[in-house]
Write a structure and sequence with these properties.
The protein is α/β, with parallel strands linked by helices and 159 residues long. 47% of the residues lie in helices and 18% in strands.
């Protein structure tokens, strides 16, 4: 579902910016996932997975991007969009909800995280999320996942 106010947003442009973060993660040996937070048409923060480098299971791309949103995200959260190359896990979807980010756009569906089901079945989450839209540049992201982390791609293809 894509809210009407995002109909004129260049989703591919911002997803390509998230893809730039995939390269940073992949070259560092991390899971190749990237994210950006966009507020009023401007990227206010970026993130990529740094689980291994930071020795923390919590250092997901989306979490890093949300943490980095700063005053722009705080003051204009109603206009925020989280772009991520992978469907957000429950932790990252929850962080977007708690940050009051109303729009989540992702590239590759992850059948194992069930965040779409969380959105559908949890009224609290559903109240906060106006857009939950996947498939943007999914083929490009799958190619990068295959390059940097083929076992992750294999897991995504099993459902």
């Amino acid at each position: 579902m894509l809210a009407p106010e995002l109909q004129t947003t260049d989703l591919a442009h911002f997803m390509r910016e998230a893809i730039n973060e995939v390269h940073l993660a992949g070259r560092a040996g991390e899971l190749p996932i990237g994210a950006v937070v966009v507020v009023r048409g401007q990227i206010v923060s970026r993130g990529h997975n740094t689980n291994r480098a930071d020795r923390s299971q919590l250092r997901h791309a989306e979490m890093s991007a949300l943490w980095g949103g700063g005053p722009e995200l705080w003051e204009h959260f109603r206009d925020a969009i989280l772009f991520t190359t992978m469907e957000p896990c429950p932790m990252c979807l929850g962080a977007a909800v708690m940050a009051d980010v109303p729009h989540v756009v992702f590239a590759v569906h992850d059948p194992h995280v069930c965040s779409g089901a969380t959105l559908a079945n949890n009224p609290y989450v559903r109240r906060h999320v106006r857009s939950y839209h996947g498939g943007v540049l999914a083929d490009e992201v799958r190619e990068l996942i295959a390059r940097y982390h083929p076992t992750l791609l294999h897991r995504l293809c099993q459902s």
